[in-house]
Amino acid sequence: MTKPESAGYDYDVVISGAGLAGSAAAILLARRGVRVALLERRSDPEAYKVLCTHSLTANAYPVLDELGLVPALEEAGAVRNEARWYTRWGWIEPRAAPAGPGLPYAYNVRRSTLDPLIRSRAAQTPGVDLLLGHQVTGLVREAGRTSGVRASTAQGEREIRARLVVGADGKDSAVAKFAGVPARLYENARFGYLAHFRNLPLHGGIGQTWFLEPDMAYAFPNDDGVTVIAVLPDKKRLPAFRDDLEGSFLEFVRALPEAPLIDSAERVTKIIGTVDYPLHSRKPTAPGVAFIGDAALTGDPLWGVGCGWALQSAQWLAEAVASAATGRGDLDRSLAVYARGHRRRLRGHQYLAADFARARPFNPGERLMFSAAARDESMARHMHLFASRLIGPLHFLNPVALAKAAAVNIKHRGAAAPPAHLSHPGS
Known about the structure:
Blueprint: E1 11-16, H1 20-30, E2 36-40, E3 55-56, H2 61-67, H3 70-75, E4 79-80, E5 83-87, E6 90-92, E7 107-108, H4 111-124, E8 128-132, E9 135-142, E10 145-153, E11 156-167, H5 174-179, E12 184-186, E13 192-198, E14 207-211, E15 216-221, E16 226-232, H6 238-243, H7 245-254, E17 266-267, E18 272-274, E19 279-281, E20 285-286, E21 289-291, E22 297-298, H8 306-325, H9 331-356, H10 364-375, H11 377-387, H12 393-396, H13 399-416
Parallel strand pairs: 1-2, 1-11, 2-8, 5-14, 11-21
Antiparallel strand pairs: 3-7, 4-7, 5-6, 9-10, 10-11, 12-19, 13-16, 13-17, 13-18, 14-15, 15-16, 19-22, 20-21
Helix pairs in contact: 1-4, 1-8, 8-9, 10-11, 10-13
């Protein structure tokens, strides 16, 4: 175990949760000279998150690259996540411009592959101590701020002191509970179920998403020849799913436009899901505490952004606090920098997601942008950048983009209208 170099502290940072966010933060902090205790309540180093979209949006690629995980993911069979999206106006099919660069991408990869991979990388990083079987049971508090954690282990209770405690322990964060940082909840009027299949070809061999207004579904090819299919219906459908989960799930998928041939595929997992998954957000910091990943903000599962934001928030935190965490700066000021950046980058995305989670039809702005993207390749590329969370809502809905979308739709209506001499006299 790493020996403490600063009087009064066992480590510079204690991270609760060795999933994507926690493991990434541990690696990035340690590379910057920070001594990290990475706590994981589960004892199995191969443990992984089961309920997930199993997809990393393209905004995660720079973090994966910094972590050095891209070659390992490619070797593990992770699938670059091209996708097409069904709408009432037809399919949105983003393609690279003929003379332009390829579209940004990251990967579809099962968490059973991804989580052990990044956790083992963290354990191998000098300056990181991975402490399995350590469940946080309380916080150490001094002079109104957090200065460590208490943890339950197989050998009994222990106290680990650090300048900074990081909650990377999910939406029901124990660190947040003990720090007294509540979550703001946003109702999600959809529920969701998913399952994994083999021998399930998809159109073009790429991911498919269906915007059925208000119902949703997606099918993503993953590593090892596995395809993840998820359905996210309006809660009005919940009684039928409760009466017959398998029958309702299969019936829903069969009814999709260009539906995957689910009946000829092999289902290799149970159908799992949740009937109540509200979006939530917390203040990203408190005195001596920071939150990353789902502990800070949980998005709507239908957008598949959670894994990408987990990795990004880990990177933002490491960049903001690494120096101060080693005692070479003002930690409170560094935490404020992280909190401002987190809010600035994600607040707009969360606002739109929370509004759409009410299971409403597209609003006028969404109708404008989605219809144009189904009719125009440049608008489809613009939509891809937003869906990949590489641009924010203000950029997505900037005046130039709105004008272009309006022009595309006006041109489409003009092209679709019958010649005047063939029109009905009263039309």
